[in-house]
Amino acid sequence: MKAHEIDFKIYGEEMQFVEIELDPQEGVVAEAGSFMMMDDQIRMDTIFGDGSGQSKDILGSLFSAGKRLLTGESLFMTVFTNISGSKRKISFASPYPGKIIPVDLRDYDGEFICQKDAFLCAAQGVSISIEFSKKLGRGLFGGEGFIMEKIQGDGKAFLHSSGTVVTRELQAGEKLKVDTGCIVGFSKTVNYDIEFIGGIRNTLFGGEGMFFANLTGPGLVAIQSLPFSRLADRILSHAPSTGGKRKGEGSVLGGLGDLLDGDNRF
Fold first, then answer.
1. 93 and which of 17, 113, 132, 208 could share a cystine (Cβ 3.0–4.6 Å)?
2. What is the distance of C-alpha 257 from the center of its chain?
3. What does the angle CA 258 – CA 229 – CA 29 come to, to the nearest 5 degrees?
4. H-assigned helices in 98-197
5. Mind spelling out the 3-state secondary structure of 36-92?
6. Cis peptide before 218 (omega within 30 of 0)
7. Spans of the chain below 70 pLDDT
8. Domain ranges, ordered by start, for the chain
9. Could you tell me the pTM of the whole model?
10. pLDDT of residue 146
11. What's the confidence (pLDDT) of residue 252?
12. All residues at 6 or more sequence positions from 256 whose CB lies less than 8 Å from its CB, including other chains
């Protein structure tokens, strides 16, 4: 099924949203919970599966929904369709600080691979399924497990990431080593594998984990500067501990420092 042609504009810097303009009878499919606002006369339908229109029977829809469940996403997606006779606009917001990345699948031979929670929305007709890693090492130590998301079709899709995003166009045979949590996505021509860092001191005390992601061109890769999981870990590490006492933020004084700065709580 040919995907709908959509126009869009991305607003904001660190807390972005994408505004999509729909012609009459055009639609967009989105993850549940990403909706921000829309004009009147746009119909909302909650569906099983990915909204690509490829699954015509109930078993096909259930299979499509089941594949989404493997990626950690909801069984349901939402389709928004312009039922008016003129153009209408609808907006979707990123769930945490970062960037929204537009991907025109026609530029990547109709397929783009991304981390499990990166998909935000896409033109109706685009398929969102799973990419299963056949390499044991990549599945166990690659940071994304054995399952990633695969976006297919001939329309536009929108991914979201955490922090600042940089894209690199790798030439044939060119390699890029990346922290396993910093990968947003890559074109299907990129080979993704993992590499052991090596060295006892590097492994035990380097603070970078035991493995790099090894990306080999040709193709495009998108990298994020701050994985959300890393941000969440930092926040949790400074959360109040049991008893209502917070951790001293790098202070050698610890609890005495809290007393001196007036933040001690009894």
1. 17
2. 40
3. 135
4. 136-141
5. EEECCCEEEEEEECCCCCCCCCHHHHHHHHHHHHHCCCCCEEEEEEECCCCCEEEEE
6. yes
7. 1, 49-75, 132-146, 196-210, 230-231, 233-234, 240-266
8. 7-232
9. 0.75
10. 53
11. 45
12. none
